[in-house]
Design a protein that fits this description.
Strand content: 35-45%
Number of domains: 2
Strand order of the largest sheet: 1-4-3-2-8-5-9
Order of helices and strands: HHEEEEEEEHEEEEEEEEEHEE
Oligomer: single chain
Number of helices: 4
Structural class: mainly beta
Number of strands: 18
Length: 275
């Protein structure tokens, strides 16, 4: 009997071999995985777990694994797993933003999202390792590493303004609309804008904001005019800003302004020195 059992030892070779292979595969899997990061967004309607990729210059560096509402119910937390070779994207200073399609006179951007679905673009940082990041939606910044200032506009009615629209100063792109939402009391609509720090000096305590129409017309017997703005404004609308000649102090980030329906009288004559 003992001799028979000893002659059957080779039967256990296959299970032992299988366990060894499984163990190696599990070890290799965890060795190849990069760090997990949490990116917060104001909303996450276009982000899909296991489908939405994180990309750098068109190359995948990570994938969204889950999406959940933050504990305070104010943000959406996007959990993502980075590739092993993309550990630098877990450094402080890394920028994440959700790509959205954009057509303007200056550029055509993000149209691949119409076919492939939305994805998150990223630029690595150079700081210490961290896990949490603040994401943006549809940023138009030419330099994604550039910091921005956040401001809020309030209006009773909203027309021709939506996420991703441009903020104009003298016809120049100086910021982006990043969020449009109904206020808690449902009495006003809140419009969130982000302005690169190099243009933040344009925002003063008495700066005026109004909706920019692509086509304007005023017909009268003696004071008639027809005006067509940029192709960008014609296609998408946007927001214009200007500051009176007696410019106020620089507005602090987070300041709330009123969003008017049209330009104030004689605003085309305003020409303040903004240093």
């Amino acid at each position: 009997m003992i001799k028979k059992l000893s002659s059957m030892w080779y039967i256990w070779l296959f299970p032992m071999f299988a366990v060894g292979i499984a163990g190696y595969l599990v070890y290799d899997f965890y060795q190849q995985r990069g760090p997990e990061v949490i990116i917060t967004f104001d909303e996450g309607s276009r982000i899909r777990p296991d489908k939405t990729e994180i990309r750098f210059r068109g190359v995948r560096v990570g994938t969204v694994t889950s999406v959940r509402i933050s504990d305070d119910k104010k943000e959406i937390e996007v959990h993502a797993r980075l590739e092993k070779h993309a550990e630098d994207f877990a450094n402080e200073g890394t920028k994440y933003w959700l790509e959205t399609p954009r057509i303007s006179f200056e550029e055509i951007r993000g149209l691949d999202t119409l076919v492939e679905g939305s994805y998150i673009s990223a630029v690595p940082g150079k700081g210490d390792k961290t896990k949490r990041f603040e994401g943006r939606v549809g940023t138009d910044l030419k330099n994604p590493l550039e910091d921005t200032a956040l401001f809020k506009l309030e209006t009773r009615t909203l027309d021709s303004v939506s996420d991703g629209d441009t903020l104009f100063y003298r016809g120049m792109n100086v910021g982006t609309v990043t969020k449009v939402a109904l206020s808690k009391t449902a009495q006003t609509i809140n419009v969130q804008i982000r302005v690169p720090w190099e243009y933040a000096r344009l925002i003063r305590t008495n700066t005026v904001f109004w909706r920019k129409a692509g086509f304007q017309a005023k017909l009268g017997l003696f004071n008639s005019f027809v005006k067509m703005n940029s192709v960008d404004a014609l296609l998408r609308g946007g927001i214009e800003l200007a500051t009176p000649n007696n410019a106020g102090a620089k507005a602090k980030a987070g300041t709330t302004f009123v969003l008017a329906g049209e330009a104030p009288k004689d605003s085309d004559k305003w020409n303040p020195v903004l240093e």
